[in-house]
Amino acid sequence: MELICPDCRAELTVVDPHSATCPGHDGRYQILFDRELGAAQPGTAAAAPGVEPAAGLAEIEEDPNIKHCATCDAPNPLTAERCGACGDRFTLLNLSARRPAPSRLNITCAQHPEVQAVTRCRICSKGVCATCDFLLPGNVHVCPSCLETGPSDEISPRRRNLMIGAFVIASYCTVMLFLLLSRTLHRMFGNSEGANMLIGNAILWPSIIGVGVAFSAVDRRLRNSMGIRAAVIWNGVNAGIFLLLMVIGMSRR
After folding, report:
1. pLDDT value at position 141?
2. What are phi and psi of 75, to 5 degrees?
3. For the chain, percent of residues with pLDDT exceeding 70
4. 167 and 205 in one domain?
5. Domain of 139?
6. Euclidean distance between CA atoms 199 and 185, whole angstroms
7. Where would I find the beta strands (DSSP E) of the chain?
8. What digits encode the pLDDT tens for the residues 59-72?
9. Pair type for strands 28-33 and 140-142
10. What's residue 77's pLDDT?
11. How much is the pLDDT for 204?
C-alpha cells in the first residue's frame, strides 16, 4: 500500500501499522483506519499528535479559469486585465489585497504541473509551488512570469481618485491663499475677528484635509506616480504657508 505525504507529495515510509514518516522533511503521520473494514485507506495519512495535520485540512476546490480581485474579492476570468466589479487592474500595483490564501490549495504549480501549489500568484492567480514562489514586501506572493514583467506606472482607480481629489483641494487652497495675500478676502469680508476666523477656517481645514487625502493615495509597498508625489508636495506646501502666516499674524498682536 502506497502512502503519499500530504505536504510534499513524496512517498511515506510505513513505520508500523499506525504511523508513517516522510523522508523528505521528517514529518510524522498517523495512518487512518476504516472503522468498518479495519483497513487503512490507500494513500491517506494524518498528522501525528503534536504535529499540525496536513491531510485533514479542508481543501478548497477552485475553478482554475477564475481569479479573484485583490481589492473586492470578486471572481474574474483568468484573462481579465481589470476587475469587472471594482475596476482595479491585475498588476503589481494593487497587491495590497486583503483576500487570505486558503490553507491548502487543490491545484498544481503552473510551472511544475507535477508539484502541489502552496499559494496563488497575487497577479495572475495561478498556482505557485515553493520553488516558484517569490515573496515581496507586504507578504505578497508572485510567480516568476509576473515578476519578470515588472510593475507599470499605472495606479489603481481608487488611488487615482484620491490623487485627483488632492489636486482639487490643493487648487482651492492655492486660490484662497492668493486672495488672502492680495487682501481680496479682507476687502470682501472685512477685518473683524469673525471675518478673520471665517477666512482662517476656510483655508486651514481644507489644507489639512488635502494633505490627508494626498497621503491616502501613497502606498509604500507599491510604485507611486509623479502625480501622487506632486499632490503630496503641493498640499503640504499650502498647509505650511498658511501655518506660517498664522504664526506671523499671532506674533504681530
Report:
1. 83
2. -75, 140
3. 65
4. yes
5. 58-152
6. 7
7. 13-16, 19-21, 28-33, 40-47, 66-68, 75-77, 119-120, 127-128, 134-136, 140-142
8. 344 566 677 776 65
9. unpaired
10. 80
11. 93
